[in-house]
Specification:
heterodimer, A: alpha+beta, Alpha-Beta Plaits, 2 domains, B: mainly alpha, Formate dehydrogenase/DMSO reductase fold
């Protein structure tokens, strides 16, 4: 399987925003958009679902906090109870600070790990660089030429109305 | 252009830069040969660091007896420096997390270096409790792990244990947050730098970042989540540091005002340290267009605001001591201001309350020299604040027979100096090898390319068509709106 891709290269965030919105409304299949910085609202223009990472953050935060409360209770009240200044063995209020810190630690670190995992990023990964200037100043809209109905001249007209800098056609070899 | 509404539309980045120009200028701070001033500064910081580490080695060999502590003053210089450095770190998280949540777009110019400052400051702070243990090779005893000493667990009711968890979480989250922000910029460095070790290293360290918006969308989500987590975290860290004191029954320490008082003081001193570093960095690395007097002014306003909170805390402490009717509490505060170490108290009041009032004047806030001097003085004042809180509360306790003084030894002074050397060595290396300004974030707030009026400033630049298969060149005239 390989895909025929059409790349439109744009020069500023307003054009990429407009052309992405227009391409989606015209029913073209948007493979991806490449940008040098996070353009706010582009995810709506692309029709991306909101990320599910907040769920990971919540779940692991909750897990970290729960595990820590249990651990503090188990060590302090069950496994090795020591009388410290006559305080009760199960002194829950005193467990709050460490529980909070562990919650933040679990939630934060696990969210970042989940982010790297879903995006397929890891140290030393060889990047699939679509163009060397997308990390500098250019924006690239990648459309898939999905069927016979894909009319290149119409797409070109659409791109042109958003000041396209350059149009490229590529053949993408299926990975793996 | 923006002349029509200079107040409303004045851009944060001067010079109407294009994104490509931002990439070039910020990458050039790493690519060009370092200046003589940089080498000189590195040499001095490195030397001081070595002196400090020698002092630490001596202290570890001899024991804590190398310090000026005695049976009454069991905590002094070491803990002062610890609290001071942790406080310095707080401004970085304030800028990166809290100001992000408040949508303060000026933060983009300073957040990278402020976060780096946080990391280095927390490392400096961590040195002190570690060496105070006397046997730092047993530091892992702070961590609850299954062991053959019982199994003996740490005491989770102790504020010192809370502190260990708070500082290690704070350090971890700060590093992760900083690195996450760095990934897109490392990809920029990879694609901007022609070849060589810098490109190879950036390619490995950027985790294969390709600028895909699907990644950007998740990145933004993660950034927001981390900011949301780091905000209560930073408040909790200095709160817990203050509990090291507030949970003790020492007059002068045992007060409920400590958490907000410490957090405000931390942001106050940290923001001043950011000002100090930024003024030096913008001057020596030619970043005047990125860190403008407007940025400095915004930070001065935060310093002024937190100075007010700190001043209120000083007054509240005195009022509470008076109003409590507790003679020990009253004596502790009388002794703090008018006792044998009262000179430190008045340095603190002058530097933290009186001098920052100059920031009410716009002329002072916009004068780089004045801001630099005041930022240094604030840090002197904040160091003395911690010294006064810690030492004056201990050196004259309930029994006059126990009363004594405290003078730091040369070892303690060298250790403090050494942490400054370590801090500046790290910061100078950071300025040299890491993009000092968050390139991707700055591009998002540029005035360049924004619609001005009803049409674009000019026709977008066109590239010549390259020879090769599948290259289309649009030949129709562009449509202008």
């Amino acid at each position: 399987m390989s895909r025929r891709l059409l790349l439109g290269i744009f020069d500023n965030e307003h054009d990429i925003m407009g052309v992405t919105q227009a391409a989606r409304e015209s029913g073209y299949k948007i493979v991806d958009v490449y940008a040098p910085y996070a353009v706010h609202g582009l995810d709506h223009a692309m029709g991306l679902e909101p990320s599910k990472l907040p769920r990971v953050c919540f779940a692991l935060g909750l897990f970290g906090a729960a595990a820590k409360v249990w651990f503090e209770y188990w060590t302090t009240a069950t496994d090795w109870p020591i009388n410290v200044g006559g305080k009760p063995f199960n002194s829950l209020p005193a467990f709050v600070p460490v529980t909070f810190e562990v919650m933040v630690l679990f939630a934060g670190v696990s969210t970042v790990i989940a982010f790297l995992y879903v995006c397929g990023l890891f140290p030393g990964k060889k990047a699939k660089i679509i163009r060397h200037d997308v990390t500098n100043h250019r924006f690239v809209l990648v459309l898939e030429q999905s069927d016979a109905a894909f009319d290149i001249s119409r797409v070109k007209r659409l791109f042109d109305s958003y000041h396209v800098v350059r149009i490229e056609e590529r053949l993408e070899e299926a990975a793996g | 252009m923006a002349e029509a509404h200079p107040v409303l539309h004045q851009p944060w980045i001067a010079g109407d830069k294009s994104p490509a120009q931002v990439t070039d200028e910020i990458c050039s701070t790493m690519e060009r040969r370092p200046s003589t001033a940089w080498w000189l500064a590195l040499l001095v910081s490195f030397t001081v660091m070595v002196i400090g580490f020698t002092a630490i080695a001596y202290q570890l060999k001899t024991g804590i007896g190398a310090w000026g502590l005695n049976t009454s003053v069991g905590w002094a210089f070491d803990i002062t420096n610890f609290v001071f450095w942790i406080g310095i770190g707080h401004a970085g998280t304030l800028i990166s997390a809290i100001l992000f949540l408040f949508r303060q777009r000026w933060r983009t110019s300073v957040n990278r270096s402020a976060e780096a400052m946080t990391i280095f400051a927390v490392m400096c702070a961590g040195i002190f409790p570690l060496i105070h243990m006397g046997r730092p090779w047993l530091a892992m005893w702070m961590f609850p792990y299954p062991n053959f000493r019982g199994p003996l667990w740490i005491n989770f009711r102790s504020p010192l244990v809370w502190d260990f968890f708070a500082i290690s979480t704070y350090f971890t989250i700060s590093v992760v947050f900083w690195y996450l922000g760095l990934m897109p910029d490392l990809a920029t460095v990879r694609d901007h730098t022609g070849s060589g070790w810098r490109r190879k290293l950036a390619a490995i360290l950027c985790f294969g970042w390709d600028g895909s918006y699907r990644t950007w969308q998740r990145y933004e989500t993660v950034y927001l989540l981390l900011a949301g987590l780091a905000t209560p975290l930073v408040v909790s860290v200095h709160t817990i540091v203050s509990w090291d004191f507030a949970t003790a029954v020492i007059p002068g320490w045992h007060t409920t005002i400590f958490p907000p008082y410490f957090v405000a003081g931390a942001i106050f001193s940290g923001m001043s340290m950011v000002l100090t570093l930024m003024i030096v960095a913008r001057k020596t690395m030619g970043l005047e267009d990125y860190i403008t007097p407007r940025h400095l002014e915004a930070m001065c306003k935060i310093v002024l605001g937190t100075s007010g909170i700190v001043a209120l805390a000083y007054l509240t402490e005195f009022f509470t001591a008076f109003y409590s009717g507790n003679p020990y509490e009253q004596f502790a505060f009388w002794n703090r201001a008018l006792g044998p170490m009262g000179w430190g108290y008045w340095i603190m009041v002058s530097c933290n309350v009186l001098i920052p009032q100059l920031y009410w004047f716009r002329r002072v806030r916009t004068s780089v020299v004045a801001v630099f001097i005041i930022s240094l003085l604030v840090n002197v004042g904040m160091w003395f604040e911690r010294f006064e809180i810690i030492v004056t509360s201990l050196h004259r306790d309930y029994l006059p027979a126990n009363w004594t003084g405290y003078t730091p030894t040369i070892i303690e002074l060298a250790t403090l100096a050494g942490t400054f050397g370590f801090f500046f060595t790290c910061f100078l290396l950071f300025c040299r090898f890491v993009p000092v300004i968050a390139i991707a974030e700055v591009k998002g707030i540029l005035s360049h390319g924004q619609p001005r009026g009803f049409h674009h400033a000019g026709a977008p630049e066109r590239e010549p068509a390259l020879a090769g298969a599948g290259v289309f060149r649009s030949v129709t005239g562009e449509v202008r709106s």
